[in-house]
Amino acid sequence: MRAPLLFAPSIPLTANYARPMIRGCFPSNPGSPEGAMKRFACALVLLLASVTNLQAQAPFYQGKTIRIIVGNLAGDAYDLWARIFAQHMGKYIPGNPTFIVQNMTGAGGVVAANYVYTVAKPDGLTLGTFGPSMYFDQLARRPEVQFDWAKFTWIGNPEQTEFILIMRTDNPYQSIEDVRKAAQPPKCGATGTSTSGYYMPKFLDEGLGIRFNIVTGYPGGGEIDLGIERGELHCRNLTISTYFAREPFLTWHKKGFVRPILQTGKKKRSSSPRRSVHL
C-alpha cells in the first residue's frame, strides 16, 4: 500500500526544460533518506517545470509560494509528511519557492480533493496530499465527489506501508475469531468512506462475514484516538508505520491498552502479537 500521495491539478510536462534536470535525479545513495528526498524532489521539479517560462531570466518560482492542501487534521500522519516536504522541498526547486501547508478536512479527504480539482488553478502553485484509496468514492459514484481521479497529476509518495487493525484489550474482541462469533459487532472509527479506517473493516464484513460497526464522520485520526480512549470505540485501522512510530500508539502498545488483531502485507511484522491475523 502507498500512503500518502501528492497530487497536483493536471498539467502537461515541458520536455525541453525537464531534460537537463534528469541528469541530477540519480543520487549515488538512492536507498538513503537523502536519496529518497532527492528523487522525490526531482519528480516535483519535472512536474512544476511545465509552468515555467523557458526564456525567462529569473526562475518562475522565485518569490512565489506553493501550497500543499492536506485533507487531514494537523498532527495526523499525512499532515506530518506534508510539513516535512514543506520544510525541505523549496531548496531543490529553481527559484527556491516558499512552501506552506493548508489543512482542509472533511469526508476523509474528499473536501480537499474536490478543492484541488475544481478550485485550484493548474499553475503549479497548489499541491494536494490525500489517501490513495480516494478513487473508491468515485467508483461508488458518491454524490459528494467532484473530481476525476484519473485526471490528477500524480507526483509520488514518501513510503510504502501496510495496514494494521487494533482493538482495545478490555473487551471481548481479542481476536478476529472473537469478532466473527460476537453477537454485537465492535465499533471502529473512520473519518470517511475512502479511508482505510472504513474500507478495511468493510472488506472483512462484506467479504469474509466478520462484522464491524463502522462509525464515520470523525474529523481526524486524533479524534478517533480520543474516541477509543473514551470507550465509545473499540477499534481502529491505520498504517503500520504510524502505529509503531508515534504517540499515542507507542504508549498504548507498551501498556497493553490495545492489541493488533490483523495486519496486511507480504510478511507479518515480528512485533505484532502471535494471535493477530496476517492477510
Summarize the structure.
By secondary structure, the protein is an alpha/beta fold. The protein has helices at residues 15-22, 33-48, 77-88, 110-118, 135-139, 176-181, 196-208, 221-230, 240-243, 249-255; strands at 5-8, 65-70, 98-103, 126-130, 153-156, 163-168, 187-189, 213-215, 235-239, 258-263, 277-278.
Provide key terms for this protein:
279 residues; alpha/beta; D-Maltodextrin-Binding Protein, domain 2; 2 domains; 5-stranded mixed β-sheet; 4-stranded mixed β-sheet; 10 helices; 32% helix; 18% strand; elongated
Structure characterization notes:
The structure is a single chain. The protein is of the alpha/beta class and 279 residues long. It has 2 domains: 152 residues, no CATH class; 116 residues, 3-Layer(aba) Sandwich (D-Maltodextrin-Binding Protein, domain 2). The chain has 10 helices and 11 strands. Strands 3-2-4-1-5 form a 5-stranded mixed β-sheet, sandwiched between helices. Helix 1 packs antiparallel against helix 2. The radius of gyration is 21 Å and the shape is elongated. It starts with a strand and ends with a strand. 37% of the residues are buried. About 5% of the residues have low confidence.
